[in-house]
């Protein structure tokens, strides 16, 4: 893979997920670059504090890409220039969201609604491109309506409008997250344009990334849901892309240790109220013995110690579970019901 602006393995933008703490852990595990949560151009133009907070970086953080959503070319261009000024060298590139299918986004003409308005989409790309020196990319889907694959033609138009690259999620907008991503669509976009093309959709393990690269010819691989509670996926993907053996799945203790670090990093940024850790914690713990009961408790956690108490208990349950499994093995019984690793994640 030749990479997009030198990056091969990317953390996708995920609203409500790709905060500063999660980005740090994914970068540490091998993501070459990480997206912030998407930001509203309109929100930035009103100097909305919440919107600006989404762009706050950790000290020393770099290789951050920012995705804007909106539909007004002049507003998008002005805010892109503002982001560039604010972020300076930390900014890897700017992206325009043309793939989000959420009703509250699409109903305003933003996100994947722009795939139905290619002229407006092209005007946005041209305006943003004219306002910044960093590369500008577009992230979109296979098409709007199921069965009507417009992505290759759409990519050509965006490239003609000045886009420096694109990311393609191989589902239709109306498909939301149903079914599976069609990587053939990524290959067809790859064949349609000269600019770098990032493949996205359903990379859950290292081997998936290697297969996506081989089947589509994409220049980089972008990962979203597979990394939730699982930053290790990036080290697995890197190994698979280099033809090396993938590192082993993390142990229960490693998963809990990562969850604790995540909570600490969030505390450093957000203070003692780290409610947003709840969903991350559920992902880290998914499938571990005792996780189902822990879910209910996590819903009441707000401070770091609240989360620690749940993590301590799960660690103890896992230790008891392991001791039980070992005893059973020693007695010649089959090792049934053992949690952890990939099996746990699929629960
Ligand atoms: C919780 C969540 C939030 C997302 N937010 C965004 C977003 O802000 N911008 C965007 O372009 N895509 C967003 N996506 C889509 C992902 O970036 C990605 O395209 C999609 O999940 C497919 O990749 P995956 O199979 O690796 O998850 C989001 C997905 C999820 C699950």
Briefly summarize what is shown.
Residues 10-312 form the DUS-like FMN-binding domain. Pfam families: Dus. By secondary structure, this protein is an alpha/beta fold.
Q: Largest beta sheet: what is the strand line-up?
A: 1-2-4-5-6-7-8-9
Helix content: 40-55%
The chain-level mean pLDDT equals 93
Question: How widely separated are the two ends?
Answer: 33 Å
Uncertain ranges: 333-347
How can the largest sheet be summarized? 8 strands, parallel, barrel
CATH superfamily of the largest domain: Aldolase class I
CATH topology of the largest domain: TIM Barrel
Which structural category do the helix and sheet elements fall into? alpha/beta
* CATH level 1 name of the largest domain: Alpha Beta
Give me the Rg, rounded.
21 Å
Q: In total, how many beta strands?
A: 9
What is the count of structural domains?
2
Total helices: the number is 15
């Amino acid at each position: 893979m030749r990479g997009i602006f030198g990056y091969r393995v990317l953390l996708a933008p995920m609203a409500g997920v790709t905060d500063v703490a999660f980005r740090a852990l994914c970068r540490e595990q091998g993501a070459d670059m990480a997206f912030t949560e998407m930001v509203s151009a309109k929100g930035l133009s009103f100097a909305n504090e919440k919107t600006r907070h989404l762009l706050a970086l950790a000290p020393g953080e770099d290789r951050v890409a920012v995705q804007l959503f909106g539909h007004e070319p002049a507003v998008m261009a002005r805010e892109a220039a503002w982001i560039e000024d604010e972020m300076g060298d930390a900014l890897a590139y700017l992206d325009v969201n043309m793939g989000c299918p959420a009703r509250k986004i699409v109903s305003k003409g933003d996100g994947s609604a722009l795939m139905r308005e290619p002229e407006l989409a092209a005007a946005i790309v041209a305006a943003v491109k004219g306002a910044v020196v960093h590369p500008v990319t577009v992230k979109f889907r296979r098409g709007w309506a199921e069965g009507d694959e417009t992505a290759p033609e759409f990519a050509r138009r965006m490239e003609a409008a000045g886009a420096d690259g694109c990311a393609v999620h191989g589902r239709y907008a109306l498909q939301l997250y149903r079914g599976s991503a069609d990587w053939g669509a990524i290959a067809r976009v790859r064949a349609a344009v000269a600019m770098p093309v990032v493949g996205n959709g359903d990379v859950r393990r290292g081997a998936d990334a290697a297969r996506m690269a081989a089947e589509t010819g994409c220049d980089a691989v972008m990962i979203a849901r597979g990394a939730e509670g699982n930053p290790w996926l990036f080290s697995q993907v890197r190994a698979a892309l280099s033809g090396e053996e993938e590192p082993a799945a993390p142990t229960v203790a490693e998963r809990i240790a990562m969850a604790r670090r995540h909570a600490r990093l969030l505390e450093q940024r957000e203070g003692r109220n780290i409610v947003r850790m709840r969903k991350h914690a559920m992902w880290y713990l998914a499938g571990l013995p005792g996780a189902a009961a822990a879910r209910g408790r996590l819903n009441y956690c707000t401070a770091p110690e609240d989360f620690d108490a749940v993590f301590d208990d799960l660690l103890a349950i896992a230790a008891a579970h392991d001791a039980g499994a070992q005893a059973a093995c020693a007695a010649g019984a089959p090792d049934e019901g053992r949690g952890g690793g990939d099996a746990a994640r699929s629960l």
